[in-house]
Each structure stands twice: as structure tokens, then as C-alpha cells.
Design a protein that fits this description.
Residues 313-561 form the Heparinase II/III-like C-terminal domain. Keywords: Lyase, Periplasm, Signal. Helix content is 36%, strand content 21%. Strand 17 (507-511) and strand 18 form a beta hairpin. Helix 3 (57-64) crosses helix 5 (102-108) and helix 6 (111-128) packs across helix 9. With 574 residues, it is of the alpha+beta class. The strands form four sheets. Strands 3, 4, 5, 6, 7, 8, 15, 19 and 20 form a nine-stranded antiparallel β-sheet that branches. Strands 11-12-13-14-21-18-17-16 form an eight-stranded antiparallel β-sheet, with no helix packed on it. The protein has helices at 2-29, 31-34, 57-64, 90-98, 102-108, 111-128, 139-151, 153-157, 162-183, 190-205, 210-227, 239-258, 265-280, 299-306, 381-385, 407-413, 445-448; strands at 67-70, 73-76, 318-319, 324-329, 332-337, 357-361, 364-368, 393-395, 402-403, 417-419, 426-428, 435-441, 451-459, 464-472, 486-493, 497-501, 507-511, 516-521, 527-533, 541-551, 557-566. The model is unreliable at 1-5 and 569-574 (pLDDT under 50).
Length: 574
């Protein structure tokens, strides 16, 4: 109970801090502060940084005809400016004001696309450039817009007359000064790091004194050292954060080089750690494991980033700072979550999935976590974050970590994780012909009085994944039969996998064109239940799950095994 009370105290401290931060932000946007954002207008853009994000000329055509497919939602403007519309979808609005969609117009390479881009920037300046308020001026959105305007300044300024050229640079300068003022008070996490990235881009791309570049470089280095872990993961433990930040950091490194400036060692070191970390989270088909806010993977996005990875050999197997383990051999990959919850202030996307794992064989996924529907209805997010949506054990249908669903909190912080495991010791069990680990967590200890321990071993050239789930009280005392010891161990099956059960209680998992695996358990008869896979490319899909249900006071340990019985051929480990 003391741990819960401590988490609650920490939560309300964050609420108070965020309330004060937003109050200061409103003050800084008011007339008393706004004069600070005025000043000298840059004469020109020295360099347009590259953009590694995928571009689609077809989207530029859609935008030309007034259809805006942003953040998973299509909005038709009916001939009006999109900045005049009151669209209730917050994600769509943030994407609109972030201007990353300018890359599609740049990819088109036509004068018509340049004119359309210029018209939309003109609309934004007229409607939002002089009023620092709302979603358009949230610091995280402002950082994305500053980066996008710099990266795609060539298309925006193509054929521009002098009055627009000056208005564009003047607005950009105001946004940069505002962002510089707000960056130090932004909440911890990706948004603050991206703000530092945007300010470094600005100091390199626009005429600025050497002191401005030194300050931007110093602040960027401090933020990278704070947020990027020694194993290359992000403090939020989100695989997607590694991908998104690399898409900004790699062009920034190139921009330093293009301007004949030495990038800070912290930037070089962060990229050198993050690229192997991204490989760590990849399955054989190139998709990222569905942990902590990860949804469907757009494979071309991964491939674009990985072209910059010069490291050789197989991915790392152990990410102790991020809290993940990887087992791989014979074309089989197992990725498991063995980490503590992230800090409360960066836990808005964290899941209660401790000791969950995913298994892919060749290019096919067999055992998965439900993942999230990235652009879906927000009311489904709590379901996707719950322990039951992961391939791990739940006790009494309760998640191993708790989330805040208070309306007062969500208005300021979203839905942070406020409780969960406090200790997750993990030990590798690797030896010749074996990749394995054993880990345990205490997420259920305070409420139900016992621990969950999981051991996984991948052997026989990847043909056997042997698992052991053990439930024990501290000190190895017997678990009480008190009606609060009901355990469910779940294995979520990918919706593309066929699942059949024979007369001997063996379950066969078969891919249409791929391997076949057989699931068996020595102590408990496995059952098959309905499930849902949130991370489908086209949205949630119906799926199934293998379930082992029992009372921990009667069966304290279960041994299960997944055996590959038909090997369809596989690519080399990447």
C-alpha cells in the first residue's frame, strides 16, 4: 500500500507541476511576454535539412483537392482552408499544424504543389501566426512545424515573391524564439527532446551568431544524455520512440556535416546506440515488437532508417537498461519485456506487459501482444494497455500495473502508469545451443502476495521454445487458497495463424505459407478463447488466444512448450 500511496503522491505532484507549467505557458503567450518573440528577421534560409520520412505524391494531390488524410482520419474541407475548420479529432489537428505533410508536396516536384504549399503556409500565418494559443502553438507541435518548415523551405519558397518570403522567415523566427522560451519547461520525454532538435536545426539552417549554435548544441547534448539510455532505448521504453527520434536525429547529424560544424559527441553516441536498439526490436519481417505503445509497423519507414545502420552482425540479445530480452536462432525470434515501468512522467503510453513475449518464425508472427490501434478510438487504449492484452500471466483478471483514469488528471497528463512492478531481476541463461533468460516481477505482490517468475529457453536450432511460469511467495512460502490466487497465462495468436486442437490437447499453430508450431502444457489443459489484435494495418482484427487457467495454490508452476514441426525455410537473422 505504501508503494501505491507513493505513486499517487508522485502523480499529484506531476499534476501540480503540469498545471503550473500550463499557467506559465499562458502567461508567456500573453501580451506581456509576446514582445520577447519579436526581433530581427533572418535574411534567408542557408540550408534545407533532409527529411527521411516517407513521402507520397498522391497525398499531395489529395490535399490539392481539399482532402486531408492525416493521423488516420480523412477530412474534406469543401474548398475552405483546413485552418478554418473546427475538427474534433485532436490527432488530426496536431498533424495539420505540424506541417509534416509538406514532404508529400516536395516529392511531387511541381510548381502547382509549391504554390499549394505556399498558400497553406500563408493561411496558417494569417490565422494562427499572430495568436499564440491552442493546439497550433503547443510546444511539441511547434517543434514539428519548425523542423518541417526548415526541411521543406525549398518547396514553400519556390517561386515566392518577396513579401511572402519575408513573412515566412518572420513567422519562423517568432516560432523559434517562442520554442526557445518554452523548451526548458516542457514535460520530460520525446516532445522536449524534439524541441531541442528543432532549435539545433534552426541554429544551423538560419543565419545566427555562433553563441546561438553553441547554446543549441549544448542543450541538445544534455537532453540526449538524459533521454537516450546506454543500450540505445528511450526512457519511455517505447520502441516507436527510437524510430521517431532517429528520423529527426539522422538528418540533424547530416546538417551539422553539411554546414561544416562538428556535431556534439552526445549526438553521435546516441545515434550509434539507437540504430542497434532499433534492430533489437525488429522481427524477421522487419516489423517492431508490440510493446509499450507500439502499433502496426510501416515497413518502408524502418527500412529507410536502417539504411544508415553500418553495424554488422546479429542484433544485440540483451537490453538491460531498456528492460528487454531477445532470443534468436534458426530463423526464430523471441522478444520479451523484462523491465520496470518507465518514470511516471513519461509513462502515458506504457503498458502493463511485464514478462510478456512475442515469437516470430521466418517472416510470420505466431505469438504476439495485442498492440495498439494507433489512430483508433481512445476508449480502446486502456484495453490494449492491460496485462490481459499481452502474452503473459494475469492474477485474478487484474493488471500488473495500474493506470490513472481520473478526468482531472487526464486533462493535464493523459493516462500515466502510477503503479506496477518495483523489482524485475533478470538473468541470461545462454550456453552453447541455448538462448534463454529467467526473470520475475513483483507487480502482484502488494495486492495478492506472490510473485510471477518466467523462464524462456530457445533451443534445438530454434525448433523448441520451452517456457516455465512459476508463482511463489517471498521466502518460498506456500500460496494461500484464499480465492485470490486465480492465474491466467495467455498466449495471443496472430490473426493470420490457423489454430487447431487435437484429441491429445495439443494445439497446432499453422501459417498459410510458413512454419507449423505445436503448443503443449504438462500441468494444465490449454483452452482457446476469442481475442482482439489491435495492431492490424487496417485496424483491430479478431484473433484467438491460448489460455492456461489454474489456481496458484494448487499448481504453483506450469511448463509449456512450443515446438516447430514443419520448417518452411527462413531468411538469415538480420
Amino acid at each position: 500500500m505504501a508503494l501505491v500511496a507513493g505513486s499517487t503522491t508522485r502523480l499529484w505532484a506531476l499534476v501540480a507541476r503540469e498545471f503550473w507549467r500550463k499557467t506559465r505557458r499562458r502567461l508567456r503567450a500573453g501580451p506581456l511576454y509576446r514582445w520577447r518573440y519579436s526581433g530581427r528577421t533572418p535574411e534567408r534560409v542557408l540550408i534545407a535539412p533532409p527529411d527521411l520520412r516517407l513521402a507520397d505524391p498522391q497525398i499531395a494531390l489529395e490535399i490539392y483537392y481539399g482532402r486531408y488524410p492525416l493521423s488516420g482520419h480523412l477530412v474534406e474541407t469543401g474548398g475552405r482552408s483546413p485552418f478554418q475548420l473546427d475538427v474534433p479529432n485532436r490527432g488530426w489537428q496536431k498533424s495539420l499544424h505540424g506541417f509534416r505533410w509538406l514532404r508529400h508536396m516536395r516529392a511531387t516536384g511541381t510548381e502547382l504543389a509549391a504554390a499549394n504549399a505556399r498558400a497553406l503556409v500563408t493561411d496558417w500565418i494569417a490565422m494562427h501566426g499572430n495568436q499564440i494559443s491552442g493546439i497550433a502553438w503547443e510546444p511539441g507541435t511547434t517543434a514539428k512545424r519548425v523542423i518541417a518548415w526548415l526541411q521543406h523551405s525549398s518547396v514553400v519558397l519556390q517561386g515566392a515573391e518577396f513579401p511572402f518570403y519575408r513573412a515566412f522567415l518572420k513567422s519562423l523566427a517568432v516560432q523559434i524564439r517562442y520554442l526557445r522560451s518554452m523548451a526548458r519547461e516542457m514535460p520530460d520525454g520525446e516532445g522536449r527532446l524534439r524541441a531541442r532538435i528543432a532549435l539545433a536545426f534552426a541554429a544551423l539552417s538560419l543565419p545566427a551568431p555562433a553563441s546561438a549554435l553553441r547554446a543549441a548544441t549544448r542543450n541538445l547534448a544534455e537532453e540526449l544524455e538524459h533521454q537516450i539510455l546506454p543500450d540505445g532505448g528511450h526512457i519511455s521504453r517505447k520502441p516507436m520512440a527510437v524510430l521517431e527520434l532517429l528520423a529527426d536525429l539522422l538528418p540533424l547529424r547530416q546538417t551539422y556535416a553539411n554546414q561544416a560544424e562538428a556535431p556534439p559527441p552526445a549526438l553521435i553516441g546516441a545515434i550509434d546506440r539507437m540504430l542497434p536498439a532499433l534492430r533489437f526490436f525488429r522481427h524477421q519481417d522487419g516489423s517492431l515488437a508490440r510493446f509499450n505503445g507500439m502499433g502496426a509497423t510501416i515497413h518502408d519507414r524502418i527500412a529507410t532508417i536502417m539504411r544508415h545502420d553500418d553495424t554488422a552482425g546479429a542484433p544485440l540479445l540483451h537490453a538491460p537498461h531498456s528492460g528487454y530480452e531477445r532470443l534468436t536462432m534458426g530463423g526464430v525470434t523471441v522478444i520479451a519485456d523484462t523491465g520496470l515501468p518507465p518514470p511516471v512522467d513519461v509513462s502515458n503510453a506504457a503498458h502493463a506487459g511485464c514478462l510478456a513475449f512475442e515469437l516470430s518464425s521466418g517472416r510470420q508472427h505466431f505469438i504476439v501482444n495485442a498492440g495498439i490501434d494507433t489512430y483508433g478510438a481512445p476508449e480502446f487504449r486502456p484495453l490494449a494497455r492491460a496485462t490481459a492484452a499481452h502474452s503473459t500471466a494475469t492474477v485474478n483478471d487484474t493488471s500488473s500495473a495500474r493506470f490513472s483514469h481520473s478526468l482531472r488528471v487526464s486533462d493535464l497528463l493523459g493516462s500515466p502508469l502510477i503503479g506496477g512492478p518495483q523489482h524485475v531481476p533478470c538473468k541470461r541463461l545462454d550456453q552453447k545451443g541455448v538462448h534463454g533468460f529467467v526473470a520475475r516481477h513483483d507487480g502482484y505482490a502488494a495486492q495478492f502476495g506472490f510473485l510471477h517468475e518466467r523462464e524462456l529457453k530457445l533451443t534445438t536450432n530454434g525448433n523448441v521454445l520451452a517456457g516455465r511460469d512459476r508463482f511463489l511467495r517471498p521466502g518460498n512460502a506456500a500460496i494461500r487458497n484464499n480465492g485470490r490466487d486465480f492465474v491466467t497465462v495467455r498466449f495471443h495468436v496472430h490473426p493470420d495463424i490457423g489454430l487447431l486442437q487435437d484429441d491429445h490437447d495439443r494445439l497446432t499453430l499453422a501459417a498459410a505459407q510458413g512454419d507449423t508450431w505445436v503448443f503443449t502444457c504438462a500441468e494444465v489443459v490449454p483452452e482457446v478463447e476469442e481475442s482482439i489484435y489491435f495492431a492490424g494495418l487496417s485496424g483491430p482484427r479478431r484473433s484467438r488466444q491460448i489460455v492456461l487457467a489454474f489456481k496458484a495454490s494448487e499448481i504453483a508452476e506450469v511448463h509449456w512448450q512450443l515446438t516447430r514441426t514443419n520448417i518452411a525455410g527462413y531468411p538469415e537473422n538480420n
